[in-house]
Amino acid sequence: QVQLVESGGGLVQAGGSLRLSCAASGRTFSTYAMGWFRQAPGKKREFVAAISRNGFTTYYADSVKGRFTISRDNAKNTVYLQMSSLKPEDTAVYSCAAGSVVGRISRVIVAVEEYDYWGQGTQVTVSS
């Protein structure tokens, strides 16, 4: 069982930056690929970014590529999402997720159904 707790959300002006954190419980954090998703009101949950177990492989949605950076610190059981050049359309609840990966430490997970555990989410609001 893994519990995920996000933090770092808030209100920011367009063009600003925020860093989200996701702290995981348990001793097996390094066995999970991690991802960030977001859901805006009235819209479906969408993939934002993913990182492999060892942190060497990352993958981004086209809408955030070049503006967002995902990273992880396995010693601290934490994954981060650095968001820059924020736009009003980035407004959403951001959730982190953990997916068990056996063996392939450089694999990333993009599909929502492949994630096993989810955090409650943190609100990010970007004003114009």
Give a verbal description of the structure.
The strands form two sheets. Strands 2, 4, 5, 6, 9, 10 and 11 form a seven-stranded mixed beta sheet that branches. The protein is globular and about 45 Å long. The protein has strands spanning 4-7, 10-13, 18-24, 32-39, 46-51, 58-60, 68-73, 78-83, 92-100, 117-118, 122-127. Helix content is 0%, strand content 48%. The chain has no helices and eleven strands.
The fraction of residues assigned to DSSP E strands is over 45%
**How many strands, which pairing sense, and closed or not: the largest β-sheet?**
7 strands, mixed
Report the order of strands and helices: EEEEEEEEEEE
Number of helices: 0
The percent of residues in helical segments reads: under 10%
Cα end-to-end separation = 40 Å
- What sort of overall outline do the alpha carbons produce when their principal axes are compared? globular
Low-confidence stretches: none
Mean pLDDT level: 96
Write the layout of secondary structure elements.
Layout: E1 4-7, E2 10-13, E3 18-24, E4 32-39, E5 46-51, E6 58-60, E7 68-73, E8 78-83, E9 92-100, E10 117-118, E11 122-127
Parallel strand pairs: 2-11
Antiparallel strand pairs: 1-3, 3-8, 4-5, 4-9, 5-6, 7-8, 9-10, 9-11
